[in-house]
């Protein structure tokens, strides 16, 4: 499928591009995932074997030109001889205890039918991300709900300055009219960027500020991304 830059692709073209993108993922055949597109929203359906495959399919669809939203109806197939919730919870607690990047005793684990809820409070966003990534490949994990929060430690004004400076240093967001609002460690991004990739990059930049506890990404994709009236 050929995409002409500057021309908004049709839903049919978007569907083909999503299917092509899924087919390029190692270990994930395109026949495993059904794709429907309407109103620039891609709906994914079918069965996969792991949470990693589900996440990869979602990320691939979001990265396709023209996709503004993804409805994920993909299911993870039940594993034969999967551990019980009790054994899985015990294994997760032990895995987190072994991880030097995760503060000892800071995270609590709830497991129900292979779905994992992580709660607790840490100082840095990388600790929250590491906690999730360290258990993502574990056998029996079907879904992860990461509710770990961050401890705010920096004045809002300083956080805003740091995030704005980082946005200005990054090629994807440099020159974009992005407003940064900070309240009690929570960052709200508003304004315009040229692409989904730039929107995700702006959010990633905000999370990279260690004192940020929450990010609400309200950035819009449009022609005013580079300061046009």
Q: For this structure, what is the CATH class of the largest domain? A: Alpha Beta
Domains counted in the coordinates: how many? 3
Beta-strand content: 25-35%
* Range of helix content: 25-40%
What is the average per-residue confidence, as pLDDT, rounded to a whole number?
85
Class based on secondary structure composition and strand pairing = alpha/beta
How many strands appear in the DSSP assignment?
11
**Looking at the structure, what is the overall shape?**
flat
Largest sheet: 4 strands, mixed
N-to-C SSE string, H for helix and E for strand? HEEHEHEEHEEHEEHEE
First-residue to last-residue Cα separation: 34 Å
Q: Radius of gyration from the CA trace?
A: 20 Å
Q: How would you describe this protein?
A:
By secondary structure, the protein is an alpha/beta fold. It has three domains: 11-76, Histidine-containing Protein, Chain: A (2-Layer Sandwich); 85-150, Histidine-containing Protein, Chain: A, CATH 3.30.1340.30; 156-226, Histidine-containing Protein, Chain: A (2-Layer Sandwich). Helices cover 33% and strands 27% of the residues. The protein contains six helices and eleven strands. The protein has helices spanning 11-23, 51-62, 85-98, 125-133, 156-169, 196-208, and strands spanning 33-38, 41-48, 69-76, 107-112, 115-122, 143-146, 149-150, 178-183, 186-193, 214-217, 220-221. Strands 4, 5, 6 and 7 form a four-stranded mixed β-sheet that branches. Strand 5, helix 4 and strand 6 form a beta-alpha-beta unit. It is flat. The two termini are 34 Å apart. Mean pLDDT is 85; it is low at 225-229.
């Amino acid at each position: 499928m050929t995409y002409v830059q500057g021309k908004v692709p049709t839903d049919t073209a978007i569907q083909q591009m999503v299917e092509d993108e899924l087919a390029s993922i190692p270990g994930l055949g395109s026949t495993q995932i059904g794709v429907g597109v309407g109103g620039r929203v891609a709906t994914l359906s079918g069965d996969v074997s792991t949470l990693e495959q589900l996440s990869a399919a979602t990320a691939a669809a979001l990265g396709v030109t023209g996709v503004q939203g993804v409805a994920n109806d993909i299911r993870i197939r039940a594993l034969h001889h999967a551990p019980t919730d009790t054994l899985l919870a015990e294994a997760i607690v032990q895995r987190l205890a072994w991880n030097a990047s995760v503060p000892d005793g800071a995270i609590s684990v709830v497991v129900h039918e292979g779905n994992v809820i992580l709660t607790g409070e840490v100082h840095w966003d990388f600790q929250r991300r590491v906690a999730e990534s360290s258990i993502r490949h574990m056998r029996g994990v079907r879904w992860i709900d990461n509710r770990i929060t961050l401890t705010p430690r920096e004045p809002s004004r300083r956080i805003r300055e740091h995030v704005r400076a980082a946005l200005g240093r990054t090629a994807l967001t440099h020159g974009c009219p992005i407003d940064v609002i900070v309240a009690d460690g929570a960052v709200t991004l508003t304004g315009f960027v040229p692409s989904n990739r730039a929107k995700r990059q702006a959010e990633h930049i905000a999370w990279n500020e260690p004192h940020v506890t929450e990010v609400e990404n309200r950035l819009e994709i449009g022609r005013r991304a580079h300061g046009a009236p």
